[in-house]
Design brief:
CATH class: Alpha Beta
Structural class: alpha+beta
CATH topology: Aminopeptidase
Number of domains: 1
Helix content: 25-40%
Strand order of the largest sheet: 1-2-3-4-5-7-6
Order of helices and strands: EHHEEEHEHEE
Largest sheet: 7 strands, mixed
Radius of gyration: 16 Å
Distance between the termini: 47 Å
CATH superfamily: Gcn5-related N-acetyltransferase (GNAT)
Number of strands: 7
Length: 170
C-alpha cells in the first residue's frame, strides 16, 4: 500500500501572537526536535522554564495555528541585548514535523521578517547545527547566507558539530 502524503496549506494556517496558554504545545514541539534531531541544541526534554526563557526579551513571538491547533512557533530577539544591536535580530522557528514542507515555515519567517523591517532592523541572524541540513537549506532558500562557523562548538548524541551562523540583510 502506498503511503498517503498529507498536505497542509499555508493559506489555511494563521500566524498570531503567542499566548501563555500555548506554552505546553510550544514545549512539546521543541522537545520533539530536542530528543530526535540536531534542530534543537538540547538532547533531553526541556520544561516550562524554557518557555519563560523564550518569552524573555522576545520582540516578536508568534505561533502558527491550523484548525485551532498550534503547529509551529517562531520568535525574534535582539542579537545581543545592547542598544548597539538594535538593528539585528536573531530568529528561532520550529514547525511540527507533519506540517513541514508546506510553506508554513516560510509563512512564519516572512511574518517575522516583515516585523523586523517595521522595527527598523537591517539584518536577521539564525544559528544552527552543521548537522541540521534541513535548516541550512531552508535558510539558504530564503535569502540567508553563512557568515560564520564555530567549529566543534557543540556535542549532541555523542557527535561533535559546528554551529553555523547565517545572516539575511533586509
Amino acid at each position: 500500500m502506498k503511503k498517503q502524503e498529507v498536505t497542509h496549506r499555508a493559506d489555511e494556517t494563521i500566524v498570531r501572537e503567542v499566548r501563555d496558554s500555548d506554552c505546553d504545545t510550544i514545549i512539546e514541539i521543541f522537545n520533539y526536535y530536542a530528543v530526535s534531531s540536531y534542530a534543537a541544541f538540547p538532547e533531553i526534554p526541556v520544561n516550562d522554564r524554557f518557555y519563560a526563557f523564550l518569552r524573555e526579551g522576545a520582540l516578536g513571538f508568534n505561533v502558527l495555528e491550523h484548525e485551532a491547533h498550534i503547529v509551529g512557533f517562531g520568535l525574534m530577539k535582539l542579537l545581543l541585548p545592547f542598544p548597539a544591536f538594535m538593528t539585528t535580530g536573531i530568529l528561532t522557528c520550529f514547525i511540527q514535523p507533519e506540517y513541514t514542507h508546506n510553506s508554513l515555515g516560510k509563512k512564519l519567517l516572512d511574518q517575522l521578517t516583515d516585523y523586523a523591517k517595521k522595527m527598523g532592523m537591517t539584518s536577521l541572524v539564525a544559528n544552527m547545527a552543521s548537522k541540521n541540513r534541513v535548516s541550512i537549506l531552508f535558510h539558504t532558500r530564503h535569502g540567508f547566507s553563512e557568515v560564520g562557523r564555530l567549529q566543534g562548538a557543540g556535542i549532541k548524541f555523542g557527535d561533535l558539530f559546528d554551529v553555523i551562523l547565517m545572516q539575511k540583510i533586509l
